[in-house]
Specification:
This protein has 657 residues and is α+β, with helices and mostly antiparallel strands. The chain has 12 helices and 29 strands.
């Protein structure tokens, strides 16, 4: 029988977790730390490497090894962020259908959701080996600052991997869900989530088993990758001085520096100084490769990281201002994301919030653990099943205690094994059914009346004073849990070793009790339509609790008009073009009439995952008309998804046969 899991699809690593006996457990996807690098490499023999084998290819085949695509997932072609990414990566980014971004690898164009799907499909196969059951449903997490395009692209990646998305949850909210159960208190917390590619600051109220997001702010182009690049540029400068050779002009050589820089950063989270030998630096074709020694101290690293940490503090200020709070109103700050392991991050956070941050749970795993708890609460109707029996699983190695690997001892593609590198692992117990959490929606509000496709001169000036204010969702008690506890063997790896030691007593602090928490999240960005003069009319404002819906009335602008087109964007700017264009909503099948006589209520509805749905109704006749939003920068057609899914099956099917 199939089960549901929680997924953290990270910029650097991907983590799967499952609830068993009321406890969330990380499913080991690798033999050392259980994490799967979010890297995909395409070989000459049409094989696809995912995870650790693909990461090893970053130094020897950078043009065909794809990583850190989360930052530009769902971004439209030609946007400044995509242009910036094109200048920084060795693999080739090209324009795809409908202004989307694709990766051209060995003459084949892969959409970015398809790249993420390779990671998810591989992780799913490895997880199924561990649990001994099929995995077909998931709660997946995204940065809080992700817009509708990015959330839609993430959902498509799950579909391509054969996973039904039960819900998309903001990463800081998922982390708070795990921490909230461990804390068992009523307080206001701030989640400082600094990952490999994104940063979010989310403020939540934890009270009476309700987890309510107050405000969130973020930067989806800020993370540990930026610090890696700053270190690599320092390496390149030293290489230029020593050998009169600038490796920034050679993508293969600079890729080696980036990977070495990542290991230097990790080492300095533990040590005050570190040194690496970077070999294989080829200056001229046919010339012998060079080897460069590079040393860096923690003080020097902190100087390099300072501009990026300054940016995180500005995001924190913005979130507090949105919530109309000060640092004194925050009871606790928790750290999430692998980049928060750096001691300088803890110091900066402590200085800003005037309190020591809390980080008892593994920052690399806590998001997946919270997602697993949410998956258990949403996964209804599963039949009762017996325990699968004892299995042989190795303890997970603590990420902070494992030795730092040598970054440049990479095998050649021919030396990499063609079979499964991790081997088979037996079964893992899993939980019984849990009750579903409720959904809360706000009331429909009617905005201004204007013609959706009339000339700019014919459109009235928009009065923003009558825009709907955010509707605060009421705190309703969650439903009771049935069969929430199952006996769990004491040796079963839960969380990580350091988290288990911190919580003691079998991780009882994270046990799912008799009542499931109610999760009330918010949309991070406003949702608007274009009005006269290129202004944005916001139907849904930022930090509105979801699910919610808003309605605006439109009128036809021409005689016998059969359809109306409305442009939709998401962001926070008063200028429409400065926001992220989502697409055009087409309302078809209108009754023929004189211009202005046909009035249509258009409703924008955000579901609990923050994804937009559109509906329309003729005000006079009550006739429901068809409305479809075509997401730009995303290949979301059924034919496109079927084509990409078939290619995934073909390329990875033999690997897991």
């Amino acid at each position: 029988m199939a089960i549901a899991v929680g997924i953290d699809l990270g910029t650097t690593n991907t983590v799967f977790a499952v609830v068993d006996g009321g406890l969330p457990h990380v499913i080991p996807l690798s033999p050392d730390d259980g994490l799967l690098p979010s890297v995909v490499s395409f070989t000459r023999s049409d094989d696809v490497f995912v995870g650790h084998k693909a990461r090893a290819c970053r130094t020897i085949d950078p043009e065909n090894t794809v990583f850190s695509v989360k930052r530009i997932l769902g971004r439209p072609w030609g946007s400044p962020l995509v242009e910036e990414a094109r200048s920084k990566v060795a693999f080739q980014l090209v324009q795809g259908p409908r202004e989307s971004v694709s990766v051209d690898v060995r003459g084949v164009a892969y959409g970015l959701p398809e790249i993420s799907a390779f990671v998810l499909r591989h992780a799913r196969a490895e997880a199924e080996k561990v649990v001994g059951e099929r995995i077909d449903r998931a709660v997946i997490t995204v940065p809080a600052s992700f817009n509708d395009l990015q959330r839609g692209a993430t959902k498509i990646a799950c579909q391509l991997a054969g996973l039904e998305v039960l819900r998309i949850v903001n990463e800081p909210t998922a982390a708070a869900l795990a921490y909230g159960l461990a804390l068992g208190t009523e307080e206001r917390i701030a989640v400082f989530d600094l990952g490999g590619g994104t940063f979010d600051l989310t403020i939540l109220d934890l009270a009476s088993n309700v987890f309510e997001v107050v405000a969130t702010a973020g930067d989806s182009m800020l993370g540990g990758d930026d610090i890696d690049r700053a270190i690599a540029l320092r390496m390149a400068s030293e290489c230029s001085k020593s050998f009169r050779f600038d490796p920034r002009g050679d993508t293969a050589v600079f890729s080696r520096l980036l990977l070495a820089a990542e290991e230097v950063k990790r080492a300095l989270s533990v040590d005050t100084e570190t040194r690496v030998e970077v070999s294989g630096l080829v200056r001229d074709p046919g010339a012998p490769p060079l080897t460069m020694g590079f040393s860096l101290s923690r003080v020097q690293l902190e100087q390099l990281a300072q501009p990026y940490l300054d940016r995180t503090m500005r995001v924190c200020e913005r979130a507090l201002a949105t919530a109309q709070l000060t640092t004194k109103d925050i009871d606790r700050v928790i750290l999430v994301g692998g980049s928060t392991r750096a001691p300088v991050v803890s110091r900066r956070v402590a200085a800003f919030f005037e309190k020591e941050p809390y980080c008892s749970l593994d920052p690399d795993r806590v998001v997946a653990l919270g997602a697993a708890l949410q998956a258990a609460s949403l996964d209804r109707g599963r039949a009762r099943r017996a325990s699968l029996g004892k299995v042989a699983l190795r303890p997970l190695v603590s990420a902070s205690s494992r030795p730092i690997p040598a970054p440049l001892a990479s095998p050649t593609p021919e030396a990499l094994p063609s079979s499964d590198p991790f081997g088979s692992v037996n079964t893992l117990p899993f939980p019984e059914a849990a009750a579903s959490s409720g959904a809360i929606g706000g009331p429909s509000l009617v905005g201004s009346l204007f013609s959706a496709n009339a000339p700019a001169s014919a459109l009235p000036t928009v009065d923003r004073s009558d825009l709907p204010s955010p509707v605060r969702a009421p705190s309703l008690p969650p439903p009771p849990v049935e069969n929430a506890r199952i006996p769990t063997l004491g040796w079963l790896p839960a969380l990580s070793l350091e988290a288990a030691q911190e919580l003691q007593a079998g991780n009882e602090g994270l046990r799912l009790g008799g009542r499931l928490p109610l999760l009330v999240d918010v949309t991070p960005l406003g949702l608007a339509v274009e009005t006269a003069g290129g202004y944005a009319q916001f139907l849904v404002s930022a930090n509105t609790p979801v699910p919610c819906d808003r309605t605006m009335r439109f009128a036809t602008a021409a005689d016998h008009q059969s359809s109306v087109v409305v442009r939709v964007a998401q962001g926070d700017s008063q200028r429409f073009d400065e926001n992220a264009l989502l697409g055009e909503v087409t309302l078809a099948g209108l009754r023929p009439a004189t211009r202005g006589l046909v009035q249509i209520d258009v409703t924008f509805e955000l579901d609990v995952s923050g994804i937009l749905h559109v509906s329309a109704k003729d005000v006079e006749t009550g006739l429901q008309t068809s409305a479809q939003i075509r997401l730009l920068a995303t290949r979301d057609d059924d034919d496109d998804i079927a084509e990409m899914s078939a290619r995934q099956e073909r390329m990875l099917g033999a690997y897991f046969a």
